[in-house]
């Protein structure tokens, strides 16, 4: 599946969405890119870059559990 981004004037949006609704959800999925979506996308892109650059710090499950237990005690 491909993703296409469109800039649509608000007064035309209803007509465009109505046109897209003739397709099934298997064919077309409408993704709302609100501010939270865009912030999450930026955050995840930064995290991926850290991993690719070798700057990310990884923990095994045991280390995570230990850290969580310690933070709960404090």
Which features characterize this protein?
74 residues
> Which structural class best describes the helix and strand composition?
mainly alpha
Helical content band: 55-70%
Biggest sheet descriptor: none
Number of strands: 0
How much of the polypeptide forms β-strand, as a percent range? under 5%
Q: How many helical elements?
A: 3
Topology as H/E string? HHH
Shape verdict: elongated
The overall pLDDT average reads 91
List the helices and strands and how they pair.
Layout: H1 10-20, H2 35-53, H3 61-73
Q: Could you walk me through the main structural features you see in this protein, from its secondary elements to its overall organization?
A:
With 74 residues, the protein is mainly alpha-helical. It has a domain at 32-74. The chain has helices at residues 10-20, 35-53, 61-73. The longest helix is centred in the middle third of the chain and has 19 residues, at 35-53. The radius of gyration is 20 Å and the shape is elongated. It starts with 9 loop residues before the first helix and ends with a helix. The mean pLDDT is 91.
């Amino acid at each position: 599946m491909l993703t296409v981004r469109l800039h649509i004037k608000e007064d035309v949006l209803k007509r465009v969405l109505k046109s897209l609704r003739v397709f099934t959800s298997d064919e077309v999925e409408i993704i709302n890119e609100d501010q939270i979506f865009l912030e999450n996308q930026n955050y995840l892109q930064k995290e991926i870059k850290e991993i690719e650059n070798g700057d990310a710090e990884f923990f095994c499950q045991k280390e995570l559990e230990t850290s969580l237990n310690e933070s709960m005690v404090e």
